[in-house]
Structures are given as structure tokens and as C-alpha cells.
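Please go through this protein, sequence plus C-alpha cells, and consider how the sequence yields the C-alpha cells. Keep your notes short.
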Amino acid sequence: MSQDTLVNVEHLTRRYGALVAVSGISFRLLRGEVLGFLGPNGAGKSTTMQVITGNLAPSEGRVTINGIDLLDDPREAKREIGFLPEQPPLYLDFTVDEYLTFCARLNRIARGHVTTAVERAKARCGLGGMGRRLIGNLSKGYRQRVGIAQAIIHSPAVVVLDEPTVGLDPIQILEIRALIRELGSDHGVILSTHILPEVQMTCNQVQIINRGRLVFDAAMEDIVHKLAPSSLVLGARRLPGDTELLSLPGVESVERLGDDRVRIGHAPGASPAETLAETAVREGWGLFELAPERKTLEQIFVEVTAAEEAGGEEDAAAPAEEAA
């Protein structure tokens, strides 16, 4: 196994009695990766996160954190993990400095290094000048920053973030996304979120879990290729017939969307938009719309989970709802 493998999950299964919350999941997280971990509600995401962070024991399977087996040596493995749950574990009547000092001591940072660790975490999370502020008086965005600071104060190899931008305003969201990308340069980051544009902007690997099973795993660069436009919408007051459109170079299919609009299918990366525009002007079609249709990560998510749900209905013997 590569020394840069920070998380290695092998055949992870978690049962609650007869209920299978997670079924046979395997994946790796490498140093420098930001992994987007997605799934619908009840899919098994939270259960998986709890097992990886050592808060739940697996029913079957093995998890190693930076080469340390989580079951054989849980204390050492947990030293390598920083975790921000969806509800940050903050003490609102502490100042930022008091709380981070407390977290540093919980993580067994040597007394002589606590102040340095606190200042480093504050600097990385944009909390300079906030040390004496009561956490209860901070905005939600700054509370999230404090939550991330406690997760990284001991310089763990792996940082697990569960819905880190829920409830934030657009500016705060951009700032937290930038921080996640920065963390990804030095750590391995697992980001669990329902906000799919966030995944596209911060992650370089995407996994989708549904009904307790891993149903999609791809690098973001491969997903970007899949998202490349392969159709465009043409609108004109005097549309030609399908035969004439299909005769144009690059046009592979024609789908009528109404009296004055059609969907033109083409090979990815080979849009006939220029040819269509030139022809429309020359032939006097009265062109008023020519727009590429981009597939979104949301569409991939829906397609993958819908296909899995359909398969699950045919195989009722394999339930995989997440326990609440």
C-alpha cells in the first residue's frame, strides 16, 4: 500500500440488528485528495463517517488511518483524525482561545506547544483577532471556522468535514470552500455534503453511496469530461425539417421541443454550433436561441441513485437504509 494512503476502508459493513446500514464499502483516501462523499438521506453516509472516525465499530471489515488499524490501536489511529460534525461541538461560553486551548489539551499536545498550535490553527482558519471573543457572540460562519480549527489543531493526517457550509451566507461559503481546498494540500479531506456545486468546486474525487453501497467512484477530471455538452438547443422562427438538420456536419440527432425549438445531439467536444449559426443566417431561419446543454453533477447523482433504487426494488433481500 502506498505511504500516501491516509484512509483505507476494506469491505466495511455496519448492521443494526437485521438492518444493514452500510454494506461492503471499500475505498482509499490519498494525501492531497479532497473526497466528496455524497448520498441521499438514509443512504449510509453518517454511519460511514462515524465508523471512519472511530465513533462506531464496524460489524465487518477493516479501517486503517495513516497505516494504523482503527480497531487494533484506536487511540493512535484517532490521533490522525480531525472531525467536524454537522453540529460543531462548541462551548458557547468559552472564548476562541479558551476553547482551542482545551481542544489542544484533549488531543494531548504538549503543554509547551499548545499556544503555538492554537495560533497556527487560528491563522489557517482566518480567526486572527478573534481569540478573546466569546464563541456565543460569533456569527455562524466564524463558529464553523472555530469548528474546523478544533479539527486541525493537532495537525491530523485526515480531516473529516460533515456539512461544513450548511446555513452560511454566500460569502462565508466561498471562504470555507477556499479553506477546504487549502486543507486538501496538506491533509486528506473527506467532505460529506448535500450541496453538489460545493463538491465540484472543492473536491478532486467523488463517491456516491446509496442504500448502504458505494455506487459511484470517479475522479473529478473524469466527471468534468462526462459533463461536457453533448447537445444544444436551437430556436428559430422558421425551423427546417429534421432531414435538413441531420444533413449538417456534426449533427447526430434531432429532438423536437416545440414548433420553434429543437434539441441537437452531437459528439462531446464536437459542437456544430458554428455551422448551425452560419446556416441559420444564410437560410434566414430567424435564429433566436443557440445554447449548449450541460449535464450537471446533480443529473449524475439522480441517475446513479435512481438506477440503484430501481435495482433495489428488484432485490428486496438487500436493504441498506441508514439507521437514524
Residues 314-324 have pLDDT under 50 and may be disordered. The first helix runs from residue 45 to 52. The CA atoms of residues 305 and 311 lie 10 Å apart. Residues 228-293 form a domain with the Alpha-Beta Plaits fold (CATH 3.30.70.100).
